[in-house]
Amino acid sequence: MRNYFIDDEKNEFVVDLHRTEVHSSNLVEFTFSSLEDDKLERTQNIFVRKLAGQYFVSMDNKRWKKLARQDAPNIMLNVNKVYQLFRGYKPSGLMGGNEGELLTQMPGKVVKIIVEKGQEVKKGDNLLILEAMKMENEIKAPIDGTVKEIYVKEGQALENGFLMMEVEKA
Amino acid sequence: MIDKRILILNRGEIASRIAKACRELNYTSVGVWTESEPHARHLEFCDEWVFLEGKNNQETYLNIEQIIKIAKENEIDGVHPGYGFLSENTDFAKALEENNITFIGPHSEAVRLMGDKAVSKTLAEKHNIPVVPGSIGAVKTIADAKKVAVEIGYPILLKAVAGGGGRGLRPCADEKELENNFEAVGREAMSSFGNGDLLVEKLIVNPRHIEVQILADKKGNTYHFFERECSVQRRHQKIIEEAPSPFIGSDEALRKELCDTAVILSKAVEYDSAGTVEFIMGEDRKFYFLEMNTRIQVEHPITEEITGIDLIVCMIQSAFGIDLGIPSQNWITKTGHAIECRICAEDPITMLPAPGEVTGFETNFPQGTRFDNCLYKSLEVTPDFDPMVGKLVTKGITRSVALRKMKAALDGLFIEGLKTNVPLHKVILENPKFIEGNYSTKFIGEEKPQDEVKTDFDYEKVYSMLATIEARRMGF
Predict the structure, then answer these.
(1) Which of A161, B60, B91, B470 to pair with B134, CA 20 to 30 A apart?
(2) Within 13 Å of residue B375, how many CA atoms lie on the same side as its CB?
């Protein structure tokens, strides 16, 4: 079965499961391989064993590691990125947004709007101040251009992924 | 034993910690819950729960009127405010006094004197305690701020009078930065503390943040429990703390001078609870009084670990006038070294808050690890509260043993689904300057450990995860 890991920036990792071998009632072995640019990159055998209601995994059937129990493992965290896991299919039309669109990365409240519609801005200029997690965060222009549209008002509470402003590329 | 009823006016790990202390004292702990956190884990540790009405913190945890009403309805004897929220609010401490409910903290006059940074600074000067040069009282206008800044010289620090916890604080290298920041800091102070007044202070170069733990009773006995060093900070918020301070090291004379100074200041306000006197120490080992926190602090566990005292229990006993059972200052000793890493729901590289849902949580710690936390599988970290979700504490006979244990503890902490600063902590623990114990509050800015956080796709983890999904699907 083919598995797709896709993050917010549409980075994609493809992992295939192509062999399952049941050794005993509590030991099973899988073989996975990863594809990069449609090329087979690596192959790995993994052993899984269940002990005291918990899954342990091993690469070599010798050294075992505990794994955090996950109820609905359709997301995976890798350091600073959260990947969505799609098993067996690849979704289409994931998250839109061009480079001039400012979306909220977390829920928050608009404290101050610094620019006006039609104003010219340089990459890195402060556009608005968003209060989130008790901190004031300066939202900066992602590109050089003009402020095409402002969709929010000062004092407005925003959900995650909300389109706040659009900057048209110069 | 007279059973007392304690209202725990907080959430998260500290609420659980206070509930444990109540259990030990055989007091009834009453936890609070709100609409935004109906499944809060701290409730699990409380004997009873009461509901706080309201949509945001202003209407719930900060609503004095509602809290007094609830406390009276539930026949509460004492309220423990934890840290943040109403822990350093004079009006609240007074309101409780008027209603004959014990505030588990210092008397309201001490909260008032120390809560206003301008007043506390004047008080310290009166007792010959060195303070950082700066404005006398709050600066009302930007013009006043500029005038003071020119007198003491740039760089300066803009500071909210009522600030704390790293909020309402901004360094300014020159006049231009001062102009840019004045309004924003005032606004942040107004929304966070309800007081927009600002102070201007000289910025000490390569400063160490060192603080002394104080514990006092109502009979005038004041004890110190040595110092903590909290120089690893980002955005003026501590992320790693250790006790004792590696900068002071084996300089017992300096340690004694610092701790004695903290005791003098505490006695000056007839302090009668657990509190912390914060100092800033320059490279020349000269120290200046910064502020006194009239509450229990986030990083209190490391002091508990090296001294063996239970600060929360003592704080509750002190509030009710019960003997602390401490014969004298000499009786208080420290052993070994303790270190704390604050585990926050944030991006390990940008260090910005990253709310989300915990999809898996598991631990596999080395012997002796303490993890004060509010984590559980399916916990949703919302932007309404501070991003800190836990405090990982290890202890060793020496600093290097404590560090080794911390590394192993971080490796054994599995939080899935939620971005945390665990990878950043791992990098910091490998940093040569940190290992040497030679670091100032500029550590994060100068050493930039965040740039060394490895973000390679962890195939081993991916395979392991997929393998367990398959195994479960097969009915294993």
Answers:
(1) B91
(2) 28
